[in-house]
Amino acid sequence: MSNPLVDMQKPDVIFCIGTNMTECHPVAATGLKKAVARGAKLIVADPRRIGLAEMSHLYLPLRVGSDTALLLGMAHVIAREGLIDDEFIENRTTGFDGFFEHISQWTPEWAETITGVPAKDIETAAMWYGSASKGAIYYTLGITEHICGVENVQSLCNLALMTGNIGREGTGINPMRGQNNIQGAGDSGALPNNYPGFQSVTDPAHQMKFKAEYGREIDLEKGITKVTALELCGDSIHAMLIDGENTLLSDPDREHCEHALRALEHLVVIDIFLTETAELADVVLPATAWGETDGVCTNTERRVQRMRAAVTPPGEAKSDWWIICQIAQRLGFDGFDFDTPKPIFNELCRISPIYAGLDWERIENSEYQWPVPHKEHPGTPRLHEETFVNGRGIFSNVHYRDPAETISENFPVWLTTGRRLQSYHTRTQTGRAQGIDYLLPEESLEVNPADIERWNLSDGEWCKMSSARGSINIKVKATNRSPRGTVFASFSFADVPVNLLTGSGYDPITHTAELKVCPVRLEPL
Q1: Domain end marker among 123, 148, 176
Q2: Helix, coil or strand: residue 165
Q3: Is residue 116 located within the same domain as residue 207?
C-alpha cells in the first residue's frame, strides 16, 4: 500500500475496484466505513453486488474481465473535463502528452459496450474521483487475477497520476495483501525477479553484491515462476519443496497441478496441518503456527512487526526458518547455522536498502514502516511524497483485451471466484476450527434468481458446472448478488474443487492466473 491503514479514514472520494474488502479484509474495511460515515463518497466497481456495493454511493456492476475498459473510459472523462493536475503532471510525471492523445479514443460510450456499465455512471465516477481533494484507490485480486492484471494496475496508476492523488494523506494506490506476510515474503526476496529489498536480479551491480555476500556464482537472469515450475515437473524438475501453501486447492487447473506434483520424484511439504497438498508429499515436515513462532512479519501497510511465541509448539513442530536451515545444512550450504530468528532478520536489514535502518531491537514495538534507509530515519508511512523511486511516474498507454476465454454457445455463463468471510482461503485453518461449519457448512454457487428459472435449476439443489477443463457438482443458491449471466463460488472446499475448472490463461508478465474469469456451463442434476 502506498498509504497507511489510518489513511483509509481520510479520503473525500474512495474508489474500490476488484476488492470484496468487507469479507476478505474485514478489519481494514472498518476504516472505509468510518470515512463513509464522515461523509466520503464511495465508488465500488465489481461484477457482484458485494457488501461494499451496498454501502456505496455509486455502484458500477461491470462485466468480469472488463476492468481496463472501465478505467480507460474514466481516464477519458477526467482528461475531457479538465480535471487533471497540471502542476503534478509537469513536475512529477513523464509520457503524459502521448497518454492524453491515446485516451481520447476511449469514450465512456465505448466502455459501456464492453463493461455493461452505463456511460453516465462511468462519467459520474470519473468526475467524482477527478474532482476530489483527496481521492484514494483500493484494489485486491479482482484486479490482478486476470491475463491483463498488469494493464489493470497500470490503468489505476494512470488515474492517480492524472489527478495527483498520490503521495498525500488520504490518497494513493492501495493494494490490500491477501495473506499475512505476503508483503514480507516479497521484501525478503521470495520473487523470481528480485533479491531482498526488490533489488533486480538482472542488475550487474546487484549480482556482484550478492555474489560477494554469499560467495557463489549468480546468474544474471530472472528465476522461473511457480507456473513454469509446475509445467517442468517430471521433465527438468524432479523435486520440489512447498512451504505453507495448499497448492492443490489454491492453484488453477487442479488436474494439471495434481499431475505435475505426482510426476515429481520427491515432494516435501512444510505445513501446520496435513493439507490436500501435503497428502501427496513423500515427506511432511510439521511447522509452527503463528502463536507458536518467534519472528518478523511485514503487513499490508509495510509495517515491520515482531512476532512472539505465546505457546509451546506441539509435538515435533518447528519454525519454518529452522526447518529450512536444517535442510540447507544437509545439502552442504554454508551460512545457515542460525540458532534464532534475530540474526536472520539482521542479515535482511544489512543487505536490503529498504530495511537498512532497522534491526531486531529497533522493531521491538513494531512502529516502523519501510523504507527505513538509516538508523535515524523515522520510517515511511506514506510513499512517494516528494518523488518516485525511479524519478518520475510513467503514464502507460494500455489497451483493452478480452479474457483468455469468453462465453460461447458451449460455455455461456461467466464464473468468477473468490473468498468468503466465514472460511479463509483453502480452509487449512478455518476448516479445522470448531464452530465454522455452523456458519458455513458447505460451498454453494451464487446464481441470479432469473437465471435459475432460465436454466431450469432449483434453489438449494445440485447442478453440474463444467468448463473446458472439467466438471464439478455444486449446490445452487439463489441470490441477487450475482448479476444475470454471472455466477460465483469460492475455492475453499476440497469436496467442491472449483479450481478444477479455472486456468484458462495467465498474465504474460507476472504469470498470475486468470482466476476471476472462467466460462462455464450449468446443468441441473
Answers
A1: 176
A2: coil
A3: no
